[in-house]
Amino acid sequence: MPLYIKGRQVDKVPTADTFFDEYPHFKESSSYLLNQEVREVGPIKLLYIGQREVAGTSPLDETISILGSEDATTCHIAVLRHTGSGATSLIHFDGCSTSDGLKTMISIVTDLTEDMSSGRLEFHLVGGFSDERRNSHEVADKVFMALYQCGQDIHLVTACILNLNTVYRFANIPFPIIYGLAVDVKTGELFRATFPDKGPDLFLRSARHFTGGKENIVIYDPHKSELVIGPFHYDILPDVDIYLTLPDHLIRKYLSTSPEQEPDGFEDSIRAALIQIRDFPDPIKSVFNGGKPRKYRKDISGMWIMVE
């Protein structure tokens, strides 16, 4: 089934290099996001989704009404929403398992929609910038290919990516404009956002993708209103103690795809993930209690509380 742009079927795979020449209207449609002020989103009703994670819910969910992700430099944040049911999924793409990640988004929305014919699937893509290494272009190309080859009719509505999401600062160095994105599940509104609270087990979750876990994992059960982490393995880093002694500028240089553009706190988050890997080298035994997932539910303040 095909990809649609402005109601017309796309007959060839779009590419990052020619996308805006072929579809210039996305420049205008992206302006509403680019001109927004960044909103700080608190923990109440929020589900934060990290790199190589995917989740979704519907307007019927009484626990979650905002899906969001941030710290995207070369990564892309994508939202898929069914216009009839309002069922919505969000993913943080970094170029790994892109096609499977899109299929998971579709599966989440389909599961939460009783009648798919009552509306259409709309896709929104935000992130990446004109980085010199062209990592953002590679991520975008993989997303375009996945959209073109997927088994559902999908309408690409927003593409605020690459050069549209680029600003030049400090001796003409490119930076992304939008680092974080949220979607209101009940209304479908997209907005720029930052998230002081990113949920539990953040460094455990980071350790998985930091050591090469390629899968985009589902982290939320909308039927039980539970955040579900793991179980999963991550690779052992034999030189982890050496990495932990590196100064900030070398951590940025060697452990990021876009060293100059990383947000504040990048080095601290990397060190915390490295400590997680060092101190818990076998998470199935030491963290996941013999292979059981870590499950959480939100309390009245919006904090995630572990379910025993």
From TrEMBL:
Transmembrane annotation, as ranges: none
Q: Which InterPro entries does the protein's record reference?
A: NTAN1 (IPR026750)
One Gene Ontology term of the biological-process aspect is: ubiquitin-dependent protein catabolic process
The UniProt entry's GO CC annotations, sorted and at most eight, read:
nucleus
Origin superkingdom: Eukaryota
Signal peptide (residue range): none
One Pfam family in the UniProt entry: N_Asn_amidohyd
GO MF annotation terms = protein-N-terminal asparagine amidohydrolase activity
Entry protein name: Protein N-terminal asparagine amidohydrolase
Give the species this sequence originates from.
Answer: Candidula unifasciata
List the lineage, top down: Eukaryota, Metazoa, Spiralia, Lophotrochozoa, Mollusca
